[in-house]
Amino acid sequence: xxxxxxxxxxxxxxxxxxxxxxxxxxxxxxxxxxxxxxxxxxxxxxxxxxxxxxxxxxxxxxxxxxxxxxxxxxxxxxxxxxxxxxxxxxxxxxxxxxxxxxxxxxxxxxxxxxxxxxxxxxxxxxxxxxxxxxxxxxxxxxxxxxxxxxxxxxxxxxxxxxxxxxxxxxxxxxxxxxxxxxxxxxxxxxxxxxxxxxxxxxxxxxxxxxxxxxxxxxxxxxxxxxxxxxxxxxxxxxxxxxxxxxxxxxxxxxxxxxxxxxxxxxxxxxxxxxxxxxxxxxxxxxxxxxxxxxxxxxxxxxxxxxxxxxxxxxxxxxxxxxxxxxxxxxxxxxxxxxxxxxxxxxxxxxxxxxxxxxxxxxxxxxxxxxxxxxxxxxx
Length: 379
Known about the structure:
Layout lengths: L1 E2 L8 H7 L4 E4 L12 H7 L4 E5 L9 E4 L3 E4 L14 E2 L3 E4 L12 E3 L2 E2 L5 E3 L13 E3 L2 E2 L2 E4 L7 E3 L2 E3 L2 E2 L2 E4 L5 E8 L2 E4 L5 E4 L3 E8 L2 E4 L6 E4 L7 E2 L1 E4 L2 E3 L7 E2 L2 E3 L2 E3 L13 E2 L4 E2 L8 H5 L49 E7 L12 E6 L3
Parallel strand pairs: 2-3, 3-5, 4-7, 5-8, 6-9, 7-10, 8-11, 9-12, 10-13, 11-15, 12-16, 13-17, 14-18, 15-18, 16-19, 17-20, 18-21, 19-22, 20-23, 21-25, 22-26, 24-27, 25-28, 26-29, 28-30, 29-31
Antiparallel strand pairs: 1-32, 32-33
């Protein structure tokens, strides 16, 4: 019996089977078998609604600009479980912009499974010249070493319909502008790790409607002077947020938001373990103050270990078990075969092949062979 590792692109067979859009492949490794060598070349060749699958590589990718069309960008995940587990590292920004007056022209873009390093982040609408604002963006299963998402600086522009899920943020997460309006945004099942150096996880979210921060974990390095909430100008605060079923460990500035509602959260060793008592914030009930969440790797969390692969599940004696306002565990969700399983956050959304073998070790020309594949689907 002959076992072989399999290229990432073979999984495209499964994806193409369920997708009607054109799928293009990218690999910047010289000997790689892909259609394009750069993200920008693949984006330029793509039409509205197309999918681009990016192969993991030892060579860092440059970012790209997606303008005036909906593109689904899929990487291999930030720590894929497979042979040769290369990630798709990006060291410059991926920009999603609207340049024309066609409403909705870049709405619905999605970025999955990329590894943003250095100062690279996802920027929305930064170069718009006609005031169009890109909506309905999905950011899923990515890792960010610096800022995750930067919203544009257009005056009174509204950014809506964003889903930010299953990501690992190492420094800052979301930055808006002074007049940015954010509405109908779901921030769910992410790990927010505050590194040293004064990171700001949420900045400039002063005007929000329907922003839900749900089932996330927040923790930081022991020597960090990072802040959970920050503003561009003195006197401004992130406001009108709804925070539910989250775990906050050792965080500073938890109470420095305005008129926000806290529901069924756990606060442990934070500077303020009762953030609803300040700035017009509201206690929506079910919050646990100064309570150890008792995660499996709680010691590593308390020590500020920067590792997205820690076991963040609650132990059997954890107060988080079934304590959410939805009847689920407070903190990260590990729901198998759903879109919110942090165990699978490290992997691509594509099905991945765990085993492939041939029925013979020697094959003659023209011979029929039997190829056996074992694959697992991801979410």
